[in-house]
Design brief:
Blueprint (H helix, E strand, L loop, with lengths): L4 H30 L17 E5 L4 E5 L16 H13 L3 H4 L5 H7 L11 E8 L2 E7 L5 E7 L8 E7 L1
Antiparallel strand pairs: 1-2, 3-4, 4-5, 5-6
Length: about 170
């Protein structure tokens, strides 16, 4: 038995409505995947506590040691601003994470950055970032006059933004 015109219109509207629902679901998934959570007030830190417990009996001593406390510094968002690449590499160095460092830096720059371990006692602070010849130069100042300078390639030459060099003085 052939469909009546009203049944045909109803089926058409159901297909259109179903298609719209699918498009909205896909859009929601894309938004959730690419959403930037760096603006949240919650800190992305991991803390492990350390404690030592000693129990003694007349014939047995048991000591349990938990690994020392470690804190992961939250990574800054990477944007079109080349300075964010330098800040991200610095944070990767603080976290002793060469894998994350490779997201924003050349292999040579990663090797140069991690040639010395990060020492919190050096009190590094970002001094400035200044442009020069297709690059941005970001300098950190540390204790006892120490400096750390990163050269970040900008989009000027048509190549992707990337930290290409790290020097220390």
């Amino acid at each position: 038995m052939p469909d009546s015109p009203n049944d045909s219109k109803l089926k058409t509207w159901l297909w259109v409505l179903g298609g719209l629902v699918v498009v909205l679901v896909i859009a929601l998934v894309v938004v959730l995947v690419v959403r930037d959570d760096s603006d949240s007030n919650e800190a992305d830190t991991t803390t492990t506590t350390s404690s030592t417990t000693t129990s003694t009996t007349t014939s047995t001593t048991t000591t349990t040691t938990v690994p020392p406390t470690t804190t992961t510094i939250a990574y800054p968002a990477i944007t079109d601003d080349p300075q964010t690449y330098a800040q991200y590499l610095f944070t990767a160095w603080q976290n002793n994470n060469q894998t994350n460092a490779a997201n924003v830096a050349s292999p040579e720059a990663v090797q140069q950055m991690f040639s010395q371990p990060y020492a919190p006692s050096a009190n590094w602070a970002l001094n400035n970032c200044s442009p020069g010849a297709g690059s941005l130069y970001c300098q950190w100042n540390g204790a006892n006059g120490a400096t750390l300078t990163m050269q970040v390639r900008t989009l000027t030459g048509g190549l992707p933004v990337l930290v290409t060099g790290v020097t220390r003085n």
